[in-house]
Amino acid sequence: MQQFKVSGMSCGHCVRAITQAIQMLDQAAKVEVDLAAGLVRVESSLNAEQVQTAIREEGYQAELP
């Protein structure tokens, strides 16, 4: 499972936007978002760069912790 530190998330809309962006690239991806910690965990066939790009295209900063 990959983990990313994501800044700018604050609500359920953020969670949905990030989850949908990742699942558009990999429908089978499992996405867990921890708003309080600012973490997104992804289990997917996508590599880290692909996941980061999907998150960034939604307007959030995503870094590997």
From TrEMBL:
Coiled-coil regions listed: none
One of the record's GO molecular function terms: metal ion binding
Superkingdom, taxonomy of origin: Bacteria
Boundaries of every HMA domain copy: 1-63
UniProt KW keywords: Metal-binding
InterPro entries (alphabetical): Heavy-metal-associated_CS, HMA_dom, HMA_dom_sf
UniProt xrefs under Pfam families: HMA (PF00403)
This protein's name: Heavy-metal-associated domain-containing protein
